[in-house]
């Protein structure tokens, strides 16, 4: 059983879980929800984007820049596989 090291990191797993439940989430929402620093959240998002697990959209809300994130199909599949692997480990522990 091999776990995806990108998703397995707790903050990135939380990000993936949040994004799996919404159409998209902006940077400030994730920052508040996860209680991470701006730099820390940015670094996690870079890792997830480099794995093609999320899509980044930049726009403006009025005159303020806004960055939103959306889980990609690849990200959704990777998260589903992560949970399948975790369930397999749990089943082994119950045997």
Characterise the protein shown here:
Helices cover 61% and strands 19% of the residues. The chain is an alpha+beta fold. It has one domain (5-88): Arc Repressor Mutant, subunit A (Orthogonal Bundle), CATH 1.10.10.10. The chain has a 3-stranded antiparallel sheet.
In brief:
By secondary structure, this protein is an alpha+beta fold. It has helices at 5-8, 10-20, 27-34, 38-50, 73-94; strands at 25-26, 54-61, 64-71. It is elongated and about 60 Å long.
- How do the helices and strands follow one another from N- to C-terminus? HHEHHEEH
Instruction: Characterize the overall form.
Output: elongated
- What's the total number of strands? 3
Query: What proportion strand?
Result: 15-25%
Distance between the termini: 16 Å
**CATH topology label:** Arc Repressor Mutant, subunit A
Q: What is the total number of structural domains?
A: 1
Query: What proportion of the residues is helical, as a percent range?
Result: 55-70%
The CATH class, by name, is: Mainly Alpha
Low-confidence sequence ranges? none
The CATH superfamily is identified as Winged helix-like DNA-binding domain superfamily/Winged helix DNA-binding domain
């Amino acid at each position: 059983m091999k776990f995806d090291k990108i998703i397995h990191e707790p903050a990135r797993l939380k990000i993936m879980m949040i994004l799996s439940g919404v159409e998209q989430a902006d940077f400030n929402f994730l920052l508040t929800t996860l209680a991470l620093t701006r730099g820390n959240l940015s670094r996690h998002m870079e890792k997830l984007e480099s794995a093609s697990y999320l899509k980044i959209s930049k726009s403006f809300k009025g005159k303020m820049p806004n960055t939103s994130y959306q889980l990609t199909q690849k990200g959704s599949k990777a998260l589903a596989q992560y949970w399948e692997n975790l369930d397999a480990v749990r089943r082994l522990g119950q045997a």
